Amino acid sequence: MSEAKYDVLGIGNAIVDVIARTEDDFLVAESLVKGSMALIDEARAETLYGRMGPAIEASGGSAANTLAGLGSLGGRAAFIGKVKADPLGEVFGHDIRAIGVDFPTAAATDGAATARCFVLVTPDGERTMSTFLGAAQALGPDDIDAATVEAASVTYLEGYLWDPPAAKEAFRKAAEIAHAAGRQVALSLSDSFCVDRYRPEFLELIRGGTVDLLFANDSELKSLYETGDIEAALQAVAADAKLAAVTLGAEGCVVLAGGERVAVPAAPVDGAIVDKTGAGDLFAAGFLFGHVRGLGLKRSAELGALAAAEVISHVGARPLVELRQLASDRGLI
């Protein structure tokens, strides 16, 4: 097996995040359920954008956020995701390349506009998301570049993109290429509602060996195993998955692999929790960075916890400081 050019190849929704602070009254007025993620159409996207307050626009999407964190730690990454050749598509492409992530996917010249996610952050740091998936859903098998997959130590798949049938085919194609090249495949469950829709398929991916490394939070894992008992869910995933990293909010995380169980506390947040957007994405970034370098389960989880703590200390789903320096200061790398 040749040396990998990339630590991680991420495949997911190419989305531009539109982030604005708001009050709870605005959520009520717009019939938005606080803390939820709802899918919206293009017309609703235009209406909501017109009613929001001042916003920050930056390329986002779960897998892309993870790659941004990986790059901040000094990792090498590539991303496959679909945008349209429009102004927001240019924003996404510029932003992700600017942080050193290779982005080889060709932009669509017709069809739906580039995806965008409106992230409304209330004073308590909770985020309420309304997402127009647009061009991101046009990702298909033809967008999977075999050479890019073969060049990555880990191909990281975003569960959010499991809805479109063509994207599922793209995922499966990428996983087959990765395994044929002796590489690993990781999956993020992304959202408990996503798990509710595709539980049998996600379980098949885990139990059948398509997925080598599973990322989930406590809600997603309980949904996966249809239980309200997190301990029962942890025992179940320990039996099913080769390696699982499960975040537990303020309780930290648990990593399970081959009968081994490692618990790591949450890292302290510098100041108040401002915005929880991207916490899981950045945990995955830190964990993957350590995992690819063979740093062990505990150190990888500690890196994940550190990255998650940094991103929830400010508005936005990507780090504002160099995570590599932060990790070095804490003696983690």
Automatic annotation (TrEMBL):
Residue ranges constituting the Carbohydrate kinase PfkB domain according to the UniProt record: 59-319
Q: What is an example of a GO molecular function annotated in this UniProt entry?
A: kinase activity
Q: Which UniProt keywords apply?
A: Kinase, Transferase
Q: Which SUPFAM superfamilies match?
A: Ribokinase-like
Protein family membership: Belongs to the carbohydrate kinase PfkB family.
Protein name stated in the entry: Adenosine kinase
- Biological source species: Methylopila turkensis
